[in-house]
Amino acid sequence: MTDSETTPVDGDPLGHLIRRYARPHSRRFVLGGAGMGLSQIPGRVPALLVGVALDAIFLERERYSLPLVPQSLIPEEQAGQVVFTITLLAVAFAAEAVLSWLGGRISGTATYRTLHDVRVDTFDALVGHEMGYFDDRQTGDLMSVLNNDVGNLRKFGDASFRGLRFLLQVVVSFAFMALLHWQLAILLALMPLVLAGLSYWYAVRVEPRYDAVRETIGTVNSRLEDSIDGITTVKAFTSEDDERDAIRDVSARYRDDKWAVIRLRLAYNLSTWLLASLVFIGVFAAGALVVMGDVPAFVEPLSAGTLVTFLFYGKSFYAPIRQLMLEVLDSYENALASSKRIVAVLERTNELDTGDEDGELSVREARLDYEDVAFAYDGAEEATVEDVDFTADPGDLVGIVGPTGAGKSTIVKLLFRFYDPSDGTVRIDGTDIATVSRRSLRRHLGYVSQDPFLFYGTVRENVAYAVADADHEDVVAAAKQAGAHEFVTDLAEGYDTHVGERGGRLSGGQRQRIAIARAIMREPDVLVLDEATSHVDNETERQIQASVDALGAEQTTIAIAHRLSTVRDADQIIVLDDGRIREAGTHDELVAEDGLYADLWRVQVGETDALSDSFLDRVSEGEEVVR
Ligand SMILES: Nc1ncnc2c1ncn2[C@@H]1O[C@H](COP(=O)(O)OP(=O)(O)OP(=O)(O)O)[C@@H](O)[C@H]1O
């Protein structure tokens, strides 16, 4: 996505998300971190105990003594020391388990609450964006923001906590080692410096590769979504092989990008593992020299037990550092790329909250005025519609007809403010719709699109969509008006029948009638039917028409139609051609005018012999004047 120019937090998107969403849960995060951190203290005790026990109980070389524990608490005889050691081991393990369980629980709650807030807000922002935003983007890409990108934040949250635990483990180990033998501890402390250098090398190289991986996963998702959504078309055109090839190409790109990341990670892993192994051997060798006393006098003496403790600690010292660097860096790089994409959706100005339009629309009689309206889609060279000027009186049925691509749907999209005109004004009852909020405007409008979308669920849920507290009678009444009741009652489970994905279990005509019922349910003041009856037979169309006409007394209706019979009885028919109104009037007036409408009508009633020369010229030039 290329939205970065519209986001106010370009520099630090991850920090922005953390400040906005994690901060409200900061108490939990701190408590969780503290629990995990504290658990590291008892977690380091067993290695210490084993070393001390080895020297005092098994080798009988040293006195049994523990740092920070008064000597009076430690039994003198061997059996007592064994019991004492076992008790301390049990207490240490139990304390570590309880503290880290508590820490994990508290920080886990905070992490998941934070992510929930991010996901809900991002979705909210997404659906609030204007139509042009969705025109420019693929569904798969947007889904991937809500799924993968938010998921990457979770991984980063989890890894950060693990990282914190590892870090504290290292600090506590180091503190214990310094107490036991500060010189060997310093030697061991050099290792993190080398690891930090290696990690820097890794981070610098991996970041750009992660960006590439994020890009390609979005493309893979979009491609998959397209192919599966369009499966009917894919099969009808027997283009399964082409689709597979396309998927193979994008998948290969993803594989290569991801492989580049994995290769780097493997190299990093190997080098840190080598380093850790060398250090382990080095500590053993150095320790052995000291134990054998083969060293200069300034080196403190070291017992065999302390050396064993050091080897334990060394292990818990470097293994976590490697893990810490790898996991945290990996997930940080991922989260950084993801947060850019989330913030691009989240912080982009929303169509529902752009300042100038806080007014509420109040509709009295639903008079509709288009005054010299012009509009061009982004990137279009010429105006898509221009000089559109007409009035729909309250309760009128206005038909809009014209060749394909003339701009009919565009005109009604301007009424919904899916797009705003570049020139001119659209008014409802005298109020410029640009001065009222989109939500309040749309609450007064009903829309049935050319290819209505049914949601996954039952017929009832689809008819009652967006109407709170709809009862059965309302749903049935709307379905009757839309000519849907009869076929719905014939379905296996009537109004409780599942319509399938996108209404796939219903025919095109049935879907349209449910969509009309859905629009009627909202009792709109202005109803827009965008070729809403194109999939139904003549008889059903007449039924729907009669119902819509009956509603007409209360509501103004705009019907876009290719089938001119749909709008034959309209109070006014507007003939659109190439984005401009060419003719307007009733059916009889327009036939009498003998212009474009008259030709379109002749085509529909089969009087092709009487078509005008100009119309025939357009057809012969290949223009799709009629469908
Ligand atoms: N979202 C969009 N982005 C860019 N151009 C668009 C978009 N929607 C439509 N157009 C273009 O605007 C012009 C008018 O389209 P519109 O859908 O309004 O025509 P129409 O008269 O309703 O056509 P049809 O009868 O075929 O549905 C067409 O040239 C179309 O390619």
Automatic annotation (TrEMBL):
Membrane topology of the entry: Multi-pass membrane protein
PROSITE patterns: ABC_TM1F, ABC_TRANSPORTER_1, ABC_TRANSPORTER_2
Compartment(s) where it occurs, according to its Swiss-Prot or TrEMBL record: Cell membrane
Gene Ontology cellular component annotations, sorted alphabetically: plasma membrane
Domain ABC transporter: 368-603
GO molecular function: ABC-type transporter activity; ATP binding; ATP hydrolysis activity
SMART domains named among the record's database cross-references: AAA
Domain ABC transmembrane type-1: 45-325
UniProt keyword Repressor, yes or no: no
Superkingdom of source: Archaea
Transmembrane segment boundaries: 79-103, 163-180, 186-204, 273-292
Swiss-Prot/TrEMBL keywords: ATP-binding, Cell membrane, Membrane, Nucleotide-binding, Transmembrane, Transmembrane helix, Transport
Pfam family membership, one: ABC_membrane
Alphabetical list of Gene3D superfamilies matching this protein: ABC transporter type 1, transmembrane domain, P-loop containing nucleotide triphosphate hydrolases
Major site of localization recorded for this protein: membrane
PANTHER family the UniProt entry points to: ATP-BINDING CASSETTE SUB-FAMILY B, ATP-BINDING CASSETTE SUB-FAMILY B MEMBER 6
Protein name: ATP-binding cassette, subfamily B
